[in-house]
Design goal:
Fumarase C, Chain A, domain 2, 19 helices, Fumarase C, Chain B, domain 1, single chain, binds arginine, 456 residues, two-stranded antiparallel ribbon, Ribonucleotide Reductase Protein R1, domain 1, mainly alpha, two-stranded parallel ribbon, 3 domains
């Protein structure tokens, strides 16, 4: 049974009914569908298609339907395919005026409208979650401003860094995602309604009125593009995928740092789980799930590309398959941001181990070479001498700071007693001066700037 079934003698095969029904997932759009319908009804009254009392009956009916859905009393059924048909059918049960609501409208522009309204709301909420995580990261950086740790390349101890600079590194990657969210919001901020099935309508729809009513920045330009276009979904899902990618890299670091091998941090109990067999285990499940779920969000991006590629102009039912990846990507990114915020707030630094790892390494070889460079030796030569010093230390099982000055002087007469102060990890963090470098001063400046940016 369909409200517009005049064309058909036979009903739909029950298998197709189940196969094509989207109501199980697109019911999430009920609020936005109702919002759009109310605006459309208002416009139909304005252009004389609905009387004031018809419009009022429609608004009243839609409000009741919203309450029915929210209270759980609304009857959903696969026969009615999608959220649009459910709401329209129920409205017509309530008022005959409901039969006029779909004037000048198609589900093709209606679904685009619902999704654009939904995406705009979700991106706003996502940005709030992201901002909360950014705030937690800045708070952590500030609380642990004096802690130093090794920075890694190739997962090898490379150069000493302040922990605050390290966490602000991940912060900046995530901060860039705010501009991707904003870009996606701008793409979504276009009113599609009035494009009809693909060609607009002979009914003199007032699109500008609807645009204002629903708070869109612009009205879409081309009716055919409008019903075929899912760029705004792609942009939103891509923004979510970038957030997930950044979270996943951060999660991976924290998972490593929480191992006994690193022992740099301890994760809050509430974000870890035990093992059913091994009593001593404390597993970083929350972070592992962020990493794992990232894979599926990347799948959402690729799945959407595959749906769109080669799709003939304009609307095709394939487009119904856009909703699940969109819901999944946005929900997963939102949940993952919230989990990561709990994690950052709740993690404890094992400062002693972090600093020991920074002290007990050959990382100061860099400063050793820079010491000679400042004294006039070409860097390539200084690099070579520092390398020899490291090899000699390794052979005698000592660190660079334990190398006798006499042996250093054998390598270069430029070495003086002050070299030992110069290569201390903490000294490097004081002496590094250039903008954005890993130093306590730069970290302090960055924290102040980001606190201002976040209004903290
Ligand atoms: N449920 C459909 C979708 O999500 C709504 C549009 C249906 N349009 C159509 N011509 N069958 O794409």
């Amino acid at each position: 049974m369909k409200p517009w079934g005049g064309r058909f003698k036979d009903g739909t095969d029950p298998l197709l009914e189940r196969f094509s029904a989207s109501i199980d997932f697109d019911r999430k759009l009920y609020h936005h569908d109702i919002r759009g319908s109310k605006a459309h009804a208002g416009m139909l009254e304005k252009i004389g298609i609905l009387t004031a009392s018809e419009k009022n009956a429609i608004i009243k009916g839609l409000d009741e339907i919203e309450k029915e859905i929210e209270s759980g009393s609304f009857q959903f059924s696969a026969v009615l395919e999608d959220i649009h048909m459910h709401i329209e059918t129920r409205l017509i049960e309530k008022t005959q005026a409901g039969k006029k609501l779909h004037t000048g409208r198609s589900r093709n522009d209606q679904i685009s409208l619902d999704m654009r309204l939904f995406v705009k709301d979700e991106l706003k909420a996502l940005d709030e979650k992201l901002t909360a995580l950014l705030a937690a990261m800045v708070r952590k950086a500030e609380a642990e401003i004096a802690v130093m740790m090794p920075g890694y390349t190739h997962l090898q101890r490379a150069q000493v860094v302040p922990f605050s600079h390290y966490i602000l590194g991940h912060y900046h990657a995530l901060k860039r995602d705010r501009s991707r969210i904003e870009a996606a919001r701008i793409t979504a901020d276009v009113l599609p309604l009035g494009s009809g099935a693909l060609a607009g309508s002979t009914i003199p729809l007032d699109r500008e009125w609807v645009r204002k009513k629903l708070g869109f920045a612009r009205v879409s330009e081309n009716s055919m593009d409008t019903v075929a276009d899912r760029d705004f979904v792609m942009d939103a899902v891509f923004a979510a995928a970038m957030i997930m990618t950044h979270l996943s890299r951060f999660a991976e670091d924290l998972i490593l740092f929480a191992t006994q091998e690193y022992a740099f941090i301890s994760l809050p109990d509430k974000l870890t789980t035990g093992s059913s067999l091994m009593p001593h285990k404390k597993n970083p499940d929350a972070l592992e799930l962020i990493r794992g779920k990232t894979g599926r969000v990347l799948g959402d991006v690729f799945g959407l590309f595959a749906i769109l590629k080669g799709l003939p102009f304009t609307y095709n039912r394939d487009l119904q398959e856009d909703k699940e990846p969109m819901f999944h990507a946005l929900e997963t990114a939102s949940d993952s941001l919230a989990i990561m915020t709990l994690c950052v707030d709740g993690l404890t630094l094992l400062r002693h181990n972090m600093e020991k790892a920074a002290e007990e390494s050959f990382m100061p070889a860099v400063e050793l070479a820079e010491y000679l460079t400042i004294k006039g030796m070409p860097f390539r030569e200084a690099h070579g001498i520092a390398g020899i010093a490291v090899r000699q230390c390794e052979e005698s099982g000592i660190l660079l700071n334990k190398m006798p000055l006499a042996r250093l002087k054998d390598l270069s007469p430029l070495f003086e007693k002050d070299v030992f102060e110069y290569i201390k990890p903490r000294n490097a963090l004081r002496v590094r001066k250039s903008k954005g470098s890993a130093s306590f001063d730069e970290a302090k400046k960055a924290i102040d700037a980001e606190k201002k940016y976040l209004h903290l």
